[in-house]
Every structure is written in C-alpha cells, then in structure tokens.
C-alpha cells in the first residue's frame, strides 16, 4: 500500500527503544509526514473528498446503528467559532481516526492529574472532543488513565523536534547520565515507560534553584548518520564539546566520575566488560571527543487509552460488549491495542493495519446494507 501511494523509505533498518531487534524503517523525509502526505495526495487523486475545518461534534445514530456525523462547518479551532452545524449521513458506516488528546489538559486532569503538568509532543488540536462524543454514544472505554511519555524529548525544543530524532541515535551509540553523579542510570534502549520513569527519578533530584535534567551524549561518528542532528544542532538543542571536561563543565557534572563512566562504557563497547544495564549494541561505537550532547525531559507523547475495538476495527458497545453496527476506529483514538506502553514506530503500524481493517469491513458493511 505504501509503495502504491508513493511513500519512500530509507534503505536501512534501525532499532528503536524497547525492540528486541532492529526492525524499524524510516521515511526519507524522517517524519510522519513522509507517510501521510503521499497517502493524502494519492487519495485526492483517486476522488476522496477532504473537508477541512470541519469539527465532528456528535455521532448520528438510528436503531442502535451509526448513520453519520454532526459537524461544525468552517470551524476555527483558535476561538472555537463556526458558521453552522451540518448533518452528514453515511450508508457505509463511520471510521473514526481522530488520534489522541495529549493537549487536552482538562481531560487528562480527570484521569492522570500529574501528567497534565507535562508538555505534550502533539499538535495543538490534539484534544478530546471526539473521544467524549464516542463515550457519550455508548462506546466502551479502555484504559483511560494510561499515557505514554517520550523519553527522548528535550526541554530545549518545543514538543518533539529534531532533537528527539537525534536522541534515538545518541541513546543507541552513546549514553545518558545523571548530572549529579556523572553515572548512567538506565538502559538507553529500554522501552519508553522504563526510560521515562528513570528520567523522572533523575529529575526528582532537582533543587529549587536548579532542575537536574538528564544528559545524553555521543561522539562525532554518530552525528554523521543521525536523522535530526543538523536541525537540532542549528536550533541549539544539541551542543558540541571539544573535550569531556568541556561537557562536564557545561552541565555541572563531576568530571572524575564522568571520565570513569566513559572508560567503563568504552570497555563495554569493546566487549571486555559486562553492561549492568544490558543495552543492546547494534553499532559498537566507542565514545571519544568531540562530544555532542542534549538535555532530556519526558513529555506526554501518546494516549494508550481510548475506545475499545475488536480485531476487525469494530467499536464495542458499553452495554452489549458487541460491535456497534456501522462504527469503526483505528489509530491512537483506540485503547488497549499496545497494552500499557508502545514500542517506537508501532503507532504507524497500528494506523495502517487497523486502518485497512476498518476500510475493508466498512466496505463489507456497505455491501451488506444492499448499497
């Protein structure tokens, strides 16, 4: 499907956090847009209509079946105004693919209050209106207190910028340290929940006059093939240090402890010392000057929660626990698909696999209605 739509992928496979092996492919554009834009263009070319500035506010139902949606036309998300309401009917059902609501602080406060204080990597429109409409229509909720934090995020860029891409390479070929101790504190390629919790522990050592941000750094060899490096370096999320002493001074890290940690890490890379954190080393890159470093802080990244679906992407009813006729969902708006946490890259697979299921089964539903 991706080939047919013109999606171009890099000719390499990498390991993202939590995976047991390298299995992730990256678009040449190194962003989600590298997948979404070609698909969007293919759909337009093949007659699919897109209605921008249309806010869905409710599902239309008749005799327990979903028959369409109610929308606000010409909706302005900045001030919440619109020109009129419009009912749009559907003979083949409705597929909901509205994503997550990580920017909806009021909703998150009701289920995971402490996370509402975190910055979110999603775009500003990632709010919970559609989720609330689904819940109001009797859709079964799943894990509404579960959210994923991105451990590769930085306080020195907004959301998840190019530094977040670079951090994955720095994690794989470098190391993360606690500035107070100069020591590693986690497996840099563990799952996102494990790493985010470890970073929060480091941040808990902050004082009223100084936040103890974890630091990840790598050598120059890594920057030669790391996506996001050039932009992150340009935007001053990533900094270069000619010596380890320079790096230690910049982040107020005890130099002697840091030097000992680098020596130990290089022995791990050389295979002469066992890694206490058991990080997999697909690329055995020793750490040597010059160094490139960035500060870390977990940010709310993904809604593990949502509405419940079955393997056919059919949305389940709260009262009957059976599929609601004519209603399908795919992607982040669904809950429980990944469990309590999600491995890097798997949201794209989720969207495409369950998107295909939703489309095929909605088409079958249309045919079954005699249309």
Q: What is the CATH superfamily of the largest domain?
A: FAD/NAD(P)-binding domain
End-to-end gap: 26 Å
Shape: elongated
CATH topology value of the largest domain: FAD/NAD(P)-binding domain
Fold and architecture overview:
The protein has 371 residues and is α+β, with helices and mostly antiparallel strands. It has 3 domains: 1-46, no CATH class; 51-149 and 300-368, FAD/NAD(P)-binding domain (3-Layer(bba) Sandwich); 153-297, Alpha-Beta Complex (Flavocytochrome C3, Chain A, domain 1), CATH 3.90.700.10. It contains 11 helices and 15 strands. The protein has helices at residues 2-5, 33-45, 105-111, 129-136, 162-173, 192-203, 220-223, 229-234, 244-251, 255-270, 346-368, and strands at residues 55-62, 65-73, 84-89, 94-96, 141-142, 147-150, 175-178, 183-184, 215-219, 239-241, 291-295, 299-303, 306-307, 314-316, 323-329. Strands 8-7-9-11-10 form a 5-stranded antiparallel sheet, with helices on both faces. A hairpin with a 4-residue loop joins strand 7 and strand 8 (183-184). The two termini are 26 Å apart. The relative contact order is 0.17. The mean pLDDT is 95.
């Amino acid at each position: 499907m991706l080939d047919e739509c013109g999606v171009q992928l890099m000719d390499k496979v990498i390991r993202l956090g939590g995976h047991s092996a390298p299995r992730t492919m990256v678009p040449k554009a190194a962003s989600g847009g590298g997948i979404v834009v070609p698909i969007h263009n293919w759909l337009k070319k093949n007659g699919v209509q897109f209605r921008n500035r249309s806010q869905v506010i409710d599902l239309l139902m008749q005799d327990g079946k979903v028959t369409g949606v109610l929308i606000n036309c010409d909706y302005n998300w900045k001030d919440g105004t619109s020109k009129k309401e419009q009912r749009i009917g559907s003979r083949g059902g409705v597929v909901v693919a509205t994503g997550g609501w990580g920017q909806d602080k009021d909703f998150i406060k009701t289920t995971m209050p402490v996370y509402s204080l975190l910055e979110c990597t999603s775009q500003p429109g990632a709010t919970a209106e559609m989720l609330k409409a689904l819940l109001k229509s009797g859709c079964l909720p799943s894990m509404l207190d579960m959210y994923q934090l991105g451990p590769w995020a930085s306080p020195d860029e907004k959301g998840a910028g190019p530094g977040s891409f670079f951090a994955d390479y720095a994690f794989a070929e470098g190391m993360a340290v606690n500035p107070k101790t100069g020591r590693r504190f986690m497996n840099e390629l563990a799952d996102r929940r494990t790493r985010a919790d470890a970073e929060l522990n480091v941040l808990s050592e902050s004082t009223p006059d100084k936040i103890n941000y974890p630091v990840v750094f790598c050598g120059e060899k890594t920057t030669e093939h790391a996506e996001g490096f050039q932009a992150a370096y340009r935007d001053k999320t990533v900094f270069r240090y000619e010596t380890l002493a320079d790096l230690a001074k910049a982040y107020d890290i005890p130099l002697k402890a840091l030097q000992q940690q680098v020596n130990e890490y290089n022995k791990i890379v050389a295979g002469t010392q066992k890694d206490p954190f058991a990080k997999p080393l697909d690329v055995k890159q020793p750490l040597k000057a010059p160094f490139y470093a960035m500060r870390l802080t977990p940010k709310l990244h993904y809604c593990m929660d949502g509405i419940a679906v079955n393997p056919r992407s059919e949305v389940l009813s709260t009262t009957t626990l059976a599929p609601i006729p004519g209603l399908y969902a795919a992607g982040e708006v669904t809950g429980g698909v990944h469990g309590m946490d999600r491995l890097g890259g798997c949201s794209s697979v989720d969207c495409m696999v369950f998107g295909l299921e939703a489309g095929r089964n909605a088409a079958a539903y249309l045919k079954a209605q005699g249309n």
